[in-house]
Amino acid sequence: MSEAPRTAVDKALDLVEAVARASQPPRLTDLAEEVGLHRATAYRVLVDLVRRGWVLRAGDRYLPGTAVLQLSSSAARNSLGALARPVLAALSERTGMMVNLQVPEVDRSRVIDVVRPDRLAMISSLTGEALPAHRFAGPLALVAALSASDRVPYLRVAEEAGHPLTGADGLLADIERAERTGFAVEYGRNEQPVASLARAVITRPGAPVCALTLVGLGPEFDEARLPHLRERLREATDDLGRILSGPGDSGTSGAPAVSAVSGDSEGSGDSGDSEGSGNSGDSEGSGNSGQTPSDPVSSSRPAATPTSQHAPPSTPTATSNSISTEGPV
């Protein structure tokens, strides 16, 4: 499948991102090579980025501009991570579990924040990791909230990994169960005594914003405690939904503006896998388009079965150091 052609916005964002992640201020040639653009094209885009404050030019090198710094400061206060952090902390306090925040990407989800109690320090947080839906409860909860067409890239990842799509143990059955119950539950791979429970936050049908996932040791997700964990997770996702909706938005059209996965019920559904686990300066005076500036700057998982029929694996105590460092998310 061929990739869509790069737009002007793509090129500008590629350059802003390249400047931001550079270990030292780059030159034009460095940036053009980094993002795969002709030097003349990169230069013209950089001229506009400098004018708008997204990039700062210092001699023959480029640095993040004031607009980026202002955006970063605003994001620190108003980003999804900042808004969700108190919800994660409260949920961890109420349940004693590790809690993570995941956002959907093209074919996986990414962990962007984690609150982990000291007693679960042996379980990896997977912060920053991109997780596939056929192995982890967080992305599974997100995929279950997507439309059928938007699920295709996630299914393709599973298929390429050799994971079955159909049948009782297939990803489609896991998705159906998570969509029906409103929760994605898993008890980890055979070598991992780690379990997780996830639920999505949705602003409108087919558009999950994020998912919250509880992560802990398998025996703590037994049938007796699962209803309690589900209810605490439901409360947390609803709270986050109200925060993201903003004041006055929750009563629109007689229904909440943000909800969790449709079909929320207390029915169980085990699915997924455990997730814890040196050139001269560029001349910016030239506005000639299409012209190069003179002297430019140079494992296998257990079968997915209803919770009532799937006993959590026997595990060591929480202080054991033998637990794999790959935990659920």
List the helices and strands and how they pair.
Elements: H1 8-21, H2 28-35, H3 39-52, E1 55-58, E2 61-64, H4 66-78, H5 80-95, E3 98-104, E4 109-115, E5 130-131, H6 137-144, H7 148-160, H8 171-181, E6 184-186, E7 194-204, E8 207-217, H9 226-245, E9 259-260
Antiparallel strand pairs: 1-2, 3-4, 3-8, 4-5, 6-7, 7-8, 7-9
Helix pairs in contact: 1-2, 1-3, 2-3, 4-5, 5-9, 6-8
Architecture overview:
The longest helix is centred in the last third of the chain and has 20 residues, at 226-245. 36% of the residues lie in helices and 16% in strands. It is globular and about 65 Å long. Strands 3, 4, 5, 6, 7, 8 and 9 form a seven-stranded antiparallel sheet that branches. A two-stranded antiparallel ribbon has the order 1-2. The relative contact order is 0.16. Residues 250-272 and 278-326 have low confidence and may be disordered. A hairpin with a 2-residue loop joins strand 7 and strand 8 (207-217). Helix 5 runs antiparallel to helix 9 and helix 6 packs across helix 8. It starts with 7 loop residues before the first helix and ends in a 69-residue tail after the last strand. The protein has 329 residues and is α+β, with helices and mostly antiparallel strands.
Q: What's the SSE pattern?
A: HHHEEHHEEEHHHEEEHE
- What is the helical fraction, as a range of percent? 25-40%
Cα-based radius of gyration, to the nearest Å:
23 Å
User: What is the helix tally?
Assistant: 9
Mean pLDDT: 80
Q: What shape does the CA trace take? A: globular
What does the oligomeric state look like here? single chain
Q: Structural class from helices and strands? A: alpha+beta
User: Uncertain runs with pLDDT below 50, 5 residues or more?
Assistant: 250-272, 278-326
Give the amount of beta strand, in percent. Answer: 15-25%
Largest sheet: 7 strands, antiparallel
